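Researcher: We're reviewing a set of sequences before deciding which ones to prioritize for further study. For each one, I'd like a predicted 3D structure that I can look through quickly. This is Energy transducer TonB. If possible, include the structure in token form so it fits the rest of the review sheet.
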Amino acid sequence: MEPKKNPKSDVSRNSSLFFAVGLALMLGITYMAINYKTYDKSNIVADSLNLDDELEEEVPITEQIITPPPPPPPPPAAPEIIEVVEDEEEVEETVIESTETEMDTEIVEVEEVEVEEVEEDIEVPFSVIENVPIFPGCENEKGNAAKKACMSEKVQKLVNKKFNKDLASDLGLQAGKKRIFVSFKIDKNGNVVQVGARGPHPALEKEAKRVIGLLPKMKPGKQRGKAVIVPYSLPIVFQVQD
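Model: Here's the predicted structure for Energy transducer TonB, in token form for your review sheet.
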């Protein structure tokens, strides 16, 4: 059986396409209608500014005031009359003679000047000196170490014998062991000089200096064959009884 209509004349065949196109047109018209704006013509200012005319500013004429110069200063006062008094005393002028010599002046030859050497006081500690000072009675000791030991022993014996041990009790010092640090120097002639002491009481220091002053003259110490000053120190220790 043959169909009655031509398939190409069927309108429903492109209905979806027509619907989409119509929908797009409606959306476009709706969007333009929403965004459409109108303005009130009465609020628009149509005035114009003409800048062709030049502005002429009138500058006021000022008058320059001339200040008169200050009056001149008054003339200086006339000086007082100064009397010139002649000096009766005559002043002798100092004549400075020239130090330059003339060609004909003979030049005196200067003899050789002898320069005397000044010996410096050199101090060498007792522990490192090459030749220790020799205490009387220690001459026969052999070697530097033996002479040092002999001297220390002789000094200790003299201090123990001459020092007044009862002095500490008389001063009212507390019982116990007391120390007095004594120092002195043996000069280049072997004499004991510059005696110093430091102890618990000035009276003990004075007694220690007195005892050290009793040391005899010694043979001076030597360093590299020359007599030098040798410092020496020792502690004096004693017990104070109740």
